[in-house]
Amino acid sequence: MALTTIFLSGRYLHPERIAAGGMGEIFVAEDGELGRKVAIKVLADRYASNHSLRRRFEREALTAAKLSGHPHIVTIYDVGESDGRPLIVMEYLAGGTLAERARSGSIDHGRALAWLAETASALDFAHEQGVVHRDVKPANLLLDEREHVHVADFGIARLVDETTLGMTAAGTVMGTAGYLSPEQARGEPVTAASDRYGLGVVAYELLTGGRPFERGSATAEAAAHLHEPVPPASERDLGLPAAVDSVFERALAKEPADRYPTARQLVDDLRGALEQQEDETRLLAVSAAPARQRRRYLPAIVAAGLLAAGTAGAVVAAILSSGGGGAAPSTGQNGRQAITVTRTVTRPNETVTEQRTTTLPAGEPPSTAPAGKLSAAEAARVNDQAYGLMKQGRYDQALPLLERAVPALKGVGFPYEAYANYNLGYTLLQLGRCRDALRPLKVANRLENASAVDDAIARAKRCA
Question: Which residues belong to the active site?
Answer without folding.
Answer: 135
